[in-house]
Amino acid sequence: MVKPPKALRVFLMYTCKVLLLFIILALIAGCSKSSARSSPESSGQQKKGMFALKKLEEDVEKLVKEFEKDYIAVKAPPAGGAGGQGAQSGGEDQSKQGQNKGRSEGQSQQSKGGQQGAGQQGASQQKGSSQQPDWAKYEKMVFLIHDEWNEFREQAMQQGAQMDMITTFNEKLNEVTKMLTKQDLYGGLLAANDLYYRTVAFESLFESGPAVSAKRTLYYLRDAAYRALSDQNEEASASMMKAQEEWKMGKTRLKDGVTANKVEFSLKELKEAIEVKDPNLIKMKYQIAEKNIKEAEKNFQKK
Length: 303
Description:
Layout: H1 6-75, H2 84-104, H3 109-129, H4 135-158, H5 163-182, H6 185-201, H7 211-229, H8 233-250, H9 257-276, H10 279-301
Helix pairs in contact: 1-4, 1-6, 2-3, 4-5, 5-6, 6-7, 7-8, 7-10, 8-9, 9-10
Protein name: Lipoprotein
Organism: Fervidicola ferrireducens
């Protein structure tokens, strides 16, 4: 058998190598297509997880605001309102006035009737001032969060959540629940706000967007305001400083300069209000700062 010329053999060997390379590339492309075919399922799981996280975050936010409403009603009630210690002292004053009036008008039946009416009015106002928060309502809200956490936890782990994130959130949720048993309004408020912070941490599993910085700022300014209203001045100042530092990093990514400046100035004014230690001033400056942060958060999400 006659061998082909050397040049032809070299050509054939080269051709075989090229064909082999094409085969390998084709196999790689096939694997890529197979992976692409599986990506819709992965994408679907991610969307499901994001939706569950959003719902969880919204319900934790509602819990924070419910605690906040009852807490501020005690610590910084509206001027002239029938809330907090003012209502109780007002009821006592009216009761005393009724007793004095009864003594000055003698022991007539009419005087006794007036005294009894004034005393009942004072007692009624005292009862209103000591009214407890609706703990049954809180229990329903917290149970809903427990249920949502039960559904979201597995999705978070599938997305790569570390065990310390899972453990920390669960412990904080248990702490909120224990505050219901103790009927501790202030403790529940702080724990619910901490739970909000832990919820925001899960966003890094799905999309670590700039809105996270706004949410962290919101957490810190809330913590500062709540602690200031409870005369924890050192802790309030520390949280206020963290809020300003967090926003300093976050505002650089916000294209809306007007909103960015509004947030910055409102944080500064809240810090000053905390230093003044006036409850109503703290309440108002906090509410303005919160409003500005919420506006910034919406602008971040539009990107």
